[in-house]
Amino acid sequence: MQRVLLIVLLWLGATGVAGAQAPTDDPAAADPPSVSDALADLKSRDFDIKGAAIETIARSGHERAEALLQALLDRGLVHDRAHDRIALGEQADGGWALTDPLTGDSLGQVDARAARPVIINNRLREQIRNLQAVAALSNPDSGRRRQAVQRLIGSADPTVIQALRERQAKEDNTAVADAIDTALSIAVLRDPDSDLHARLAAIDAVAGSLEPAVKNVLRDRATQTDAAAERNAAEKALKAIDARTARYETADTIFFGLSLGSVLLLAAIGLAITFGVMGVINMAHGELIMLGAYTTYVVQQIFPQGHEWSLLIAIPAAFLVSALVGIVIERCVIRFLYGRPLETLLATFGVSLILQQAVRLIFSPLNRSVVTPDWMSGALQINPVFSLTYNRLYIIFFALAVFLTLLTVLKKTRLGLQVRAVSQNRITARAMGIRSERVNALTFGLGSGIAGIAGVALAQLTNVGPNLGQAYIIDSFMVVVFGGVGNLWGTLTAAFGLGIANKFIEPLAGAVLAKIMVLVFIILFIQRKPRGLFPQRGRAAEDS
Amino acid sequence: MSMKRNLKRIAQVGIAAGAISYSGLVSAANTIKVGVLHSLSGTMAISESTLKDTVLMMIEQQNEKGGVMGKKLEPVVVDPASDWPLFAEKARQLLTQDKVDVIFGCWTSVSRKSVLPVVEELNGLLFYPVQYEGEESSKNVFYTGAAPNQQAIPAVDYLLNDLGVERFVLAGTDYVYPRTTNKILEAYLKSKGIGDEDIMINYTPFGHSDWQSIVSRIKEFGSEGKKTAVVSTINGDANVPFYKELGNQGIDAADIPVVAFSVGEQELSGIDTGPLVGHLAAWNYFESVYTPENNKFIDQWHDYIGDDSRVTNDPMEATYIGFNMWVKAVEKAKSTDTDNVAKAMIGIETPNLTGGTAVMNKNHHLSKPVLIGEIQDNGQFAVVWETDGLVAGDAWSDYLPDSKNLIADWTAPINCGNYNTKTKTCGGQTAQ
Lengths: 544, 432
Description:
- The complex is a heterodimer of chains A (544) and B (432).
- By secondary structure, chain A is an alpha+beta fold.
- Chain A has helices spanning 2-21, 33-41, 47-59, 65-73, 122-136, 142-152, 158-170, 174-190, 196-206, 212-224, 228-277, 285-302, 310-332, 341-363, 390-412, 414-424, 426-431, 436-459, 468-483, 488-509, 511-528, 539-543; strands at 77-80, 85-92, 95-99, 106-111, 115-117, 379-383, 386-389.
- In chain A, the strands form two sheets. Chain A has a five-stranded antiparallel β-sheet. A two-stranded antiparallel ribbon of chain A has the order 6-7.
- At the A-B interface, helix 5, helix 10, helix 11, helix 15 and helix 20 of A face helix 2, strand 7, helix 7, helix 8 and strand 15 of B.
């Protein structure tokens, strides 16, 4: 007890000393009055006044200026209504913990409604970011400098151009220097007073760049200039840029197609087992995907701090949840209905409605938010016109990994052998001592579990809500039927084929018509080849 | 004698029984029945179930205040399950079996269109609380959400005048509301001198989730030197993957802002809004608006629903206004009869939640303020622009050639939902 008291006393003493020391190095004494005036201006509702205030703060050279602008961007600068003052605010205990913007002293805690963040709009946000970019030109990190220059490309602000010129003289990193050259060349082309030689040199300098700003300025020059030499140079550069852009656009479309294909593959691959191998028309397949997505959500709720890695736990968890539900469905409903496809269809459709409404009751009809980990956000920027979004990239690899694992399970394991035996000829398989009932349940569980894994991936792309499954059930059947029932490779080919075809039609016909055209194509195709792309051959196929 | 006594007794029992059943009738007549026609299951449950709770909360509060004309309000909740024909059946059931005096309900335009003939045939009263495409005015319906001139047109004006936008992408889900709204917007933009090559129109199916190529085309369309904005009438669910894709492809609100007409606090509660900061929405109400009325409403909502994280949104305010107007109109008419209440409704004023007053106009549409908000990282909107005063809802758009000359006026002598001011004729209850 005494020790605790002692610690408390010591702690109080320490904070007391710190508190006493604070005023001695109080920056408020050196504060130019303009910054506090500018802060007061931020209370205005007029965005022009706020814009001027931001400019003042940025130019003040005050040591906290950068922190204040960042706070303004992050909604950390609040208007304390009771005292009618601007303060730095941090959300705490359902209220705001306020600190003085210039000194950092604590101003106490106020109620959530007593303070409101200072509102800025897009224009002010861009203004602050540009000011920050100009400041970042002298950042020691070359990556940050390059980003800053990239932001400033195309800017016509003379102070920005000046800052870029100053940096150009000092810059030693070639990538940053190139970016600055591009930015300054654009400025030369935009400048109505620059002479022809400078412009021709500028066109020459930017000709290899794919920046949209370059393309725009060249297009303007090609139509506006009076000098034939400049027009020719601009047109030639434009043509080269257009040709390169077109190539990257095709690459883009193929990537989009592969990505759509990987989503189709994930959604369909579980069905390729339950429908393709076992011949069960499972209308609740989509809901098993949905359960996987909800499992991802629940896992994220259990580990609120672990957004970066909780997906790795969600994958086996989703597999287990969906597999168990799948086995329960098989044991309770489907096993009584083997060989009666119509009844199976209706019964599993009923199951799908039950699962949907159950999720509505447990999680509410509102969509749930699944956090995307940082390593799956953003895009791999290959050049200004071509980038691969990380989430799609990972999902393509994930889909292929799931496919290969499943293929191995079916081809190399005992369970896989039994599954194939039962699906080819149930009676002979039973005669060989295979417990076909158990194999049925496990196979259905495997297909369902894979649907659950698909749900983990889809949770990153679409809404996690009770209707998630319905959106994918049609597509899944389409892929399996098109690829050839019972053939996993067919499913793979069909998924990627349909994905890429869809993405090539979409820009020409629109998303709605593209979907219709693909569907019509499949209907016609199935008319010609009822067994799909890769029909199963042999006696098993004849029986079914 | 005994026979006579027996008869007397039978008569007494009969009278007593009659009295009991009569008293039952009296107690039934002592409540006013309020029908609630919102989907509690199916696709639309996500949006509509909140409105059901809002109506129930309003009823509870009104009953605590003593009901209406001394009578308690009795809610009758039905579930049309996001199934459009079922909306009509349930509306018929509410009006003929449950004999409700008023219905609060519908969300999608197609559900309203399906209920419309029923309420007109049975002379019911429907309060419709959602922003919609206009081109309609029924004697039996009061539209408390925004008409296009109270949402879409002011939003485009903001883009044109305040942001200096010169190119527009009109992106929508493929159904009646986006198609009509985009037709109006296209005509409006052309009247403002925007050329064909600067307007890109794109429709996607319901629940579209693969936005890669569309977002990439928008990016390309917006990189050609002119300031570009997206006007989005994309419906509900499909917005989340759309905004995610925008964020992933690095489209910043400062470069290409997206202004949405179907995205509110509720829709945003399903996503991380960090990458969306600065994208816009146009509504007549935002939860972040700081007024005593709104703070009170939010507190009451949190109390009622028992969850402080639940948000409020524009259709909830429209329900709030519609309900309060109906209560006032019933008290003014001293009756719940449809014709009397409908007559009393016109000109009724009640406070809205943004510090102003809502007025019911002769065309059964409200006068409302229009607010433009930017998405913040906490899933709320910050108001960056608002109209100076109230904007009166226009049932028939002035920018479509077919409806240019039409007005709705439910007062004598016109008394018509689609009156042609040129030919001076009435096109019937509702046109088309």
